């Protein structure tokens, strides 16, 4: 058993002992104390799973085997726990999405649906800004509305790290059709790509 896995298991064990020994499980206790204690255990459990995956990989197990054990595809397992090497530098790639990506995507969708074209264009990086402006955004959105009617709502947003970009997928529901708003953000929060795609487009993060 790897040292990191043993250490993670030890931390989880200590947290569980602390919770069981504390008064947080008594009926008269503040429910928020129990919630916070449960979240601490959840965090430790996630750490233990990550350590177990690392141990399985170091023992020669494939991503297919690990994905099967986790109940996901091998690509989903790799995207969550893998440590890809950048072929350009030989360094471990950053696989953590921009923390604000979901909020940024919501803002972009909200601006689009309220015809704030200039507000969206102001977030473009220099490359996108040279190719697409407020008028182009308005024309593109008008085409979508012409195909599917008025915008109604958006679904849960996914955010995936793709090299130096964080790519978000936001499901969009219109009165007569569904689409996906795919937005690529740089780490400085500027927009490096914006597409409105058919809903059947494969998700970036497979289940």
Describe this entry's structure for a reader.
The protein is of the alpha+beta class. 49% of the residues lie in helices and 17% in strands. It has 8 helices and 5 strands. It has helices spanning 3-21, 31-58, 63-70, 74-81, 101-113, 117-121, 126-131, 134-148; strands at residues 151-154, 158-162, 165-174, 177-185, 191-198. Strands 1, 2, 3, 4 and 5 form a 5-stranded antiparallel sheet that branches. α1 (3-21) packs antiparallel against α2 (31-58) and α3 packs across α4 (74-81). It is globular. The model has no long low-confidence stretch (mean pLDDT 85).
Keywords:
single chain; 5 strands; alpha+beta; 49% helix; globular; 207 residues
SSE topology sketch:
Blueprint: H1 3-21, H2 31-58, H3 63-70, H4 74-81, H5 101-113, H6 117-121, H7 126-131, H8 134-148, E1 151-154, E2 158-162, E3 165-174, E4 177-185, E5 191-198
Helix pairs in contact: 1-2, 3-4
String of helices and strands: HHHHHHHHEEEEE
Percent range for helical residues?
Answer: 40-55%
Work out the strand percent.
15-25%
**Number of strand elements:** 5
Q: What is the distance, rounded to the nearest whole angstrom, between the alpha carbons of the first and last residues? A: 29 Å
Count the DSSP helices. 8
Low-confidence stretches: none
Inertia-based shape: globular
Structural class: alpha+beta
Mean pLDDT across residues: 85
Largest sheet: 5 strands, antiparallel
Computed over alpha carbons, the radius of gyration is 22 Å
């Amino acid at each position: 058993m790897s040292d990191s896995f043993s250490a993670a298991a030890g931390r989880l064990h200590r947290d569980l002992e602390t919770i069981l020994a504390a008064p947080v499980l008594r009926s008269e206790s503040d429910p928020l104390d129990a919630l916070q204690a449960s979240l601490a255990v959840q965090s430790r459990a996630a750490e233990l799973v990550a350590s177990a995956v690392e141990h399985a990989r170091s023992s020669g197990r494939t991503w297919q085997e690990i994905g099967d054990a986790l109940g996901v595809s091998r690509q989903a397992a790799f995207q969550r726990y893998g440590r890809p090497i950048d072929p350009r530098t030989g360094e471990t790639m950053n696989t953590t999405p921009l923390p604000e990506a979901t909020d940024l995507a919501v803002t972009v969708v909200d601006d689009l649906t309220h015809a704030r074209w200039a507000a969206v264009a102001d977030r473009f990086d220099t490359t996108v800004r040279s190719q697409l402006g407020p008028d182009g955004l308005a024309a593109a959105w008008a085409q979508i509305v012409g195909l599917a009617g008025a915008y109604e709502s958006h679904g849960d947003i996914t955010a995936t790290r793709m090299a130096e970009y964080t790519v978000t997928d936001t499901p969009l529901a219109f009165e007569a059709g569904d689409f996906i708003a795919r937005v690529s953000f740089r780490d400085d929060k500027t927009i490096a790509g914006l597409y409105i795609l058919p809903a059947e487009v494969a998700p970036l993060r497979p289940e």
